Amino acid sequence: MNWDRLTTVEEMEAATNSLLENGKKVGADSWQQRVKNQTPHCGFGEAGTCCRICSMGPCRITPKSPRGICGCDVHGIVGRNFLRFVAGGAATHSDHGREIMHTLHQTKPDGSYQVKDPEKLLRIAKEWGVETEGKDIYDLAHEMAEIGLMEYGKPFGVQRFLQRAPEHTQKLWHEAGIEPRAIDREVATALHMTHMGNSSLPEALIRQSLRSGLSDGWGGSMMGTEFSDVMFGTPKPVDTTANIGVMEKDMVNIIVHGHDPSLSEMVVYYANDPEMIALAKSYGAKGINVAGVCCTANEVAMRHGIPMAGNFLSQENVVLTGACEAIVVDVQCIFPALGPLSKCFHTKFITTSPIARMPDSEFIQFSAESAGENAKAIVKMAVENFQNRNQDLVNIPNQVSKARVGYSVEAIVKVLDGVANTQVDELGTTKPLLECITSGVLRGAVAMVGCNNPKVRPDFAHIELMKKLLENDIILIVSGCSAQAAAKAGLMDPEVAKDYCGAGLKRVCELANIPPVLHMGSCVDISRMMILASQLSKDSGIPISQLPVVGCAPEWMSEKAVSIGNYVVATGIDTFLGVDPYSKGSDEVTALLQGEHGIKDWVEANYTVELDIEKLGDKMIERIEQKRAALGI
Ligand code: MSK
Questions:
Q1: How confident is the model at residue 422, as a pLDDT?
Q2: Which of 81-90, 351-360, 427-436, 509-518 comes out lowest in average pLDDT?
Q3: Is 415 in the pocket of ligand 1 (CB under 6 A)?
Q4: Residue 49 Cβ contacting ligand 1 at under 6 Å
Q5: Are 408 and 497 in contact, with CB atoms under 8 Å apart?
Q6: Which of 448, 557, 558, 579 to probe ligand 1 with, by most ligand atoms within 8 A of CB?
Q7: Ligand 1 centroid to residue 541 C-alpha, Å
Q8: Who's near 544: CB < 8 A, 6+ residues apart?
Q9: 94 φ, ψ (degrees, to nearest 5)
Q10: Band (3; pLDDT cuts 50, 70, 90)
Q11: Confidence class of residue 58 from pLDDT cuts 50, 70 and 90?
């Protein structure tokens, strides 16, 4: 265990290699092998220049064949593919938010789901103009759930949460014609626009990409985050541990993986049930250990201090330890490979959502109405499986770091008040953080998010970029698998990580007793970052685009990440990518996304794509310093 220094990527890779050796003993496949099988990738796919939207093709654009059969040029094809990519992500995130609203509708004082943060519910109700006086909190929760669900399909108007943005941002959205209407409408419009015979004008396609992205970040994702807080509690700083060594040799190990906290909350609850613990002991285990992978790990870590076993490309590692009794999944980012892999061991691969059905899994349909019963059945199945573990195959690398997680906007506002001693009003203020930035104690902030991608050495880009930014007194707010990369390395351990900071950031961390990399949650929680940026802008009077703040997704891989990129940029935050979003095949689309006169003219921010991680870091620091110079700070 590395309690007093960072765990290096090389050490993590050595641990993975020892797990792959374990897998070889039982004939397991691995993503590392599948990457080799799939390489080299299709050049047309990578450039975004293959169109298979209708059945006349597929059409692939080359110098010899510059147009598809319908006559669409490369710019239309790349633009359409890009918009479809965004729509897939916006639909996915927002459907997660929709499930949360349905769960909110099921809350009862004595039910599986309750209102744990009534103040937050009342605050949002007031914001939405809903009468709260004398109303029972559960009646209010149900009313808010219905109103929230209408945001998905209302025939008129724009998203309610847009009014949270600074006036300047709202004006830009209005003038650019990208205020998102009903969430489902923006996804449907994206699919309609990209159907054969509709839009092929890059500008129109990219405008709709921003609009669809905004329907996610300021609609579906924001509802997912805010109402998860209402039901499960708004995160506060809590200490936990991270990396593969959180699996316990003598305990029943249950891994929760996916995104929707409705499932994992209940699994955590029943894993603590004395009846289940007694059952585990009757099978010779010392107890039940729940740990997380991917964003579900973030959700339960920040609310309950549940350890985080790994991120996206570590998901096979937990099974390869030979000590995983069950891997329980809900939705998104789940490798279908987990089915055949779990068959090589004793592991039960339990799927729970009709949205994510996979071969070689046991399906226990989870629903808000029968949540308790379902979760108990899952925990029992895992416990009973302990007896089937083959002890000769158990290999748990001794790699664990400490992590302090759970920095919601509310928590950040609270802890940073300790640094500058500014009076916090009822709703809180970001003024202490602004003072640190304007005085130069902190040079700026980077919101680092996103996945792992085998195109980038896993976790290396996240960790190395974070170290470089910390050295330069740039504070990090992180979410998703980027957050777990930091936690695995030890960058969320306040004691260890402060030594990687410049003098200013180190002082802030010591005074506020925080790590320099602040864990903000899962990938839907990037909406928290939008609220924080908006609050900084309102408290300073400076437009978001002029603040020394940038976004970064160095190892992103999913459609959701592209949707996120679109709402982050559309909110005015320059965004730096370490993987190309299949757009390089069109110089027109590239200019719109990355140039000085594309989306930048509409929303005052754009993308930078840089595959060299060292240069990506330099470019972010340069942009932050340019913004500081422009502000004269
Ligand atoms: S889980 S979308 S791999 S961050 Fe949210 Fe991680 Fe990316 Fe999935």
A1: 52
A2: 427-436
A3: no
A4: no
A5: no
A6: 558
A7: 33
A8: 166, 168, 169, 533, 534, 536, 537, 571, 572, 573, 604
A9: -70, -30
A10: confident
A11: very high
Give me ligand 1 centre to Cα 486, in Å: 14
Q: Ligand 1 centroid to 521 CA: how many Å?
A: 11
- Hey, what amino acid is at 523? C
Bond into 155 cis (ω within 30): no
Q: Residue 1: which pLDDT band, with cuts at 50, 70 and 90? A: low
pLDDT tens, position by position, 98-107 = 999 999 999 9
- In the reported structure, the alpha carbon of residue 423 is separated from the centroid of ligand 1 by a whole-number distance in angstroms of 37
Q: Which among 300, 328, 281 is positioned nearest to 241, based on CA atoms?
A: 300
Task: Report the distance separating Cα 107 and Cα 434, nearest Å.
Answer: 38
96 lines ligand 1 (CB under 6 A): no
Share of the chain above pLDDT 90, in %: 95
Q: Which atom of ligand 1 is nearest to the CA of 332?
A: 8
User: Is the overall model pTM greater than 0.85, yes or no?
Assistant: yes
| C-beta separation of 618 from 587 below 8 A | no
pLDDT above 60 for 127: yes
pLDDT of residue 2: 65
Residue 198 sits at the vertex; the CA angle it makes with 193 and 199, to the nearest 5 degrees, is: 70
For residue 48 and ligand 1, the question of a CB distance below 6 A is answered with: no
The response to whether residue 519 sits with its C-beta less than 6 Å from ligand 1 reads: no
When pLDDT is cut at 50, 70 and 90, the band that residue 424 belongs to is: very low
480 within ligand 1 shell (Cβ under 6 A): yes
The one-character DSSP state at 1 is -
What spacing in Å lies between the alpha carbon of 312 and ligand 1's midpoint?
A: 6
- Asked if residue 28 has its Cβ within 6 Å of ligand 1, the reply is no
Q: Provide φ and ψ at 340, rounded to 5°.
A: -60, -35
**Ligand 1 centroid to residue 560 C-alpha, Å:** 8
The rounded percent of the chain whose pLDDT value lies above 70 is 98
Structure tokens at 41: 């990738």
- Which of 92, 96, 294, 334 for mutating ligand 1's site (highest number of atoms within 8 Å of CB)? 294
- The 10s digit of each residue's pLDDT in 168-214 is 999 999 999 999 999 999 999 999 999 999 999 999 999 999 999 99
Cα–Cα distance list, 412 to 170, 277, 444, 518, 590 (Å): 25, 36, 15, 8, 36
pLDDT tops 90 at residue 575: yes
Q: Which two tokens stand for residue 226?
A: 């805010």
Q: Ligand 1 centre and the CA of 546: distance in Å?
A: 28
Please report the atom of ligand 1 found closest to the CA of residue 561.
2
* Site of tokens 């955590």: 268
Yes or no: say if 26 and 344 are a contact pair by the CB < 8 Å rule. Answer: yes
